[in-house]
Design the sequence.
């Protein structure tokens, strides 16, 4: 009986984790065309696209909200930020996309480099695939260890049977953008990513993007909405509670919106304190005889 219960529990947990951990096991198709005598493809980055000269490298991950791919995008962002912590990966911006459906696209914020397009590749990237492409882009000499399984060199040939890739998508509108700057030395990436997911879930239609910004400044943890500072850990001397940030974001983007149980304002708290102080209690209404009888009943003299 206990064994059956354990099996059922394992199956349930597996189903819950499946949207985050399930990736297409088959290799994506390679689409190649000749461009000026060189080979240009979604699986290869040429020397011209490499930016290992110290330039600022910012990534953008678009994901479909209707397909519930926020956890997948946030997990991939954490994988990349952890792997390239010391390799000038400046930031990763998560961009919820409502249409068209089925979007999962990884590219540079200036749209100069496309690292992955789910519709063109025929599936999601494995973590090591995306790490290899990011490495080839920002740090070609970096060794990725067990994730560094280099593909065998292939001869350049025309491909007449492969379908042409879809036209490139225009860059999405990023504003309103929420940025979370966190200290890499303090290992606050998970905290920042968790807060990003909280805000993307609550403000699914109000926030267009959330950017995770690693920083080596000791103890830094800042949350900004466009140009407005919402929270600075060094000034407030503590981390924010989720409901505090949600209220601040709501007050800027949609003051009339109700946040449900997270919507406890200072005014409401003040009213509650005043009511609790002024409201008469049952003890205040007791006569002396009733009070004496109660003390006898409970054995208090």
Sequence:
């Amino acid at each position: 009986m206990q064994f059956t219960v354990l099996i059922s529990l394992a199956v349930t947990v597996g189903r819950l984790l499946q949207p985050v951990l399930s990736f297409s096991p088959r290799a994506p198709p390679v689409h190649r065309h000749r461009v000026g005598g060189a080979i240009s493809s979604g699986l290869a980055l040429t020397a011209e696209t490499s930016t290992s000269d110290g330039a600022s490298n910012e990534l953008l991950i678009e994901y479909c909200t209707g397909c519930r791919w926020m956890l997948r995008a946030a997990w991939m962002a954490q994988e990349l930020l952890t792997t390239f912590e010391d390799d000038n990966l400046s930031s990763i911006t998560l961009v919820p996309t409502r249409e068209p459906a089925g979007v999962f696209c990884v590219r540079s914020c200036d749209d100069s480099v496309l690292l992955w397009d789910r519709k063109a590749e025929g599936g999601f990237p494995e973590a090591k695939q995306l790490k290899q492409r990011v490495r080839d882009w920002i740090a070609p000499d970096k060794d990725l260890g067990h994730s560094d399984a280099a593909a065998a060199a292939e001869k350049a040939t025309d491909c007449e049977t492969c379908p042409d890739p879809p036209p490139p998508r225009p860059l999405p509108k990023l504003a309103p953008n929420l940025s979370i700057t966190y200290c890499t030395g303090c290992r606050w990436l998970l905290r920042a990513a968790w807060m990003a997911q909280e805000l993307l879930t609550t403000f699914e239609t109000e926030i267009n993007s959330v950017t995770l910004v690693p920083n080596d400044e000791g103890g830094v943890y800042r949350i900004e909405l466009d140009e407005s500072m919402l929270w600075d850990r060094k000034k407030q001397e503590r981390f924010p509670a989720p409901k505090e940030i949600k209220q601040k974001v709501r007050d800027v983007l949609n003051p009339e919106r109700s946040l449900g149980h997270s919507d406890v304002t200072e005014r409401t708290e003040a009213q509650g304190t005043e009511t609790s102080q002024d409201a008469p209690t049952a003890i205040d209404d007791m006569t002396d005889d009733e009070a004496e009888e109660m003390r006898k009943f409970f054995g208090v003299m």
Q: What stands out?
A: Residues 16-50, 151-157 have pLDDT under 50 and may be disordered.
